[in-house]
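Input for the complex:
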Amino acid sequence: MAFPHAEEQRALTYAAVTDSGFSMGEVWLHYFSLSGEVDEYEVEAYLEGLMPMPPLECDVLALAVNELIDGLPPRKRAPFSDELVRAHAGADGVA
Amino acid sequence: MDLFPPSGELGTALGRIRGLTLTQETAQNAVDLLARVTQETTPNAFGAGVSLIHQAQRLSVGATDDLVRLADDLQYELGEGPCLAAWSSRGPVGVDDTTTDHRFPQWSAAAADAGVRACFSFPLLRGRDAIGAMKIYSTAPSAFGEPDRARLARLATAASALLGHVQTSETTTRLSTELRESLRARDLVGIAKGILMQREGLTEAEALMALTLRARTTGVSFRRLTAEIAAETADGTAFGTDPGPSEML
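Predicted:
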């Protein structure tokens, strides 16, 4: 079931899961809720590079992983100086 | 298999998936081993026990012998005793002599009758929750010194970390809510797939592909996307509101 770039997709999906800190169980449950058909055991085996999955299942898994990542609280961002000036002006009622 | 298995079963299955739970069997094994290790490392104790407690109900108990089990059972029958006290107060509780200690009058009397003279119990703590207690028993009064107490405290700390994953009824409830939610989401995907198949003449795989593509390009979550497609039809905006008999087929 080797479709083009299957291995690259798997490796990058695996990296995304590892990096996000989600457990295999959490990933599988979300994948399942998006109508994923492959069992948890096999999904884990796929991610570890032990067995292939059909291309569509790989995409549903990618979607599940991305939705989980999108749902994470965003990282803190640094404010720009003018943003702070505007924010404070607004709070003081000047703007 | 039952079409709608009780949520407990599904919860357990899901608990395993989430790596949250030990099965009842594993938990029993763990507490039995722990009781044995405690006894082997505490020569002053004739026996040791470990109880996992949830909402004053004992989930599982590990005991090195029948006398320990009896002394433990008495606590739950009578609703009092050092082990329950250690669990509820989340602190160590010792009884030096069951014939003179009157804090747990019924239990002390019954335990003394059975031959138990001293007991020391330490709670199993997981964060702010007490998940059970460990205890050592002796047939001699004042049998336990500071080294025994300190050793039990250390064992209890290590055991708490390991036993913390034992499933409580609370996690079951939380998990079955999550599971129901997940099944509902999956159901919506099925409905949305069916609608696309009917409306656009797609195969199931093509419908799923179309859906994932739409989710990716619009940035709308799959859950919302599929819910919207299912709702469209309910409003009759996509389909005729009055399907004729031929369309019903």
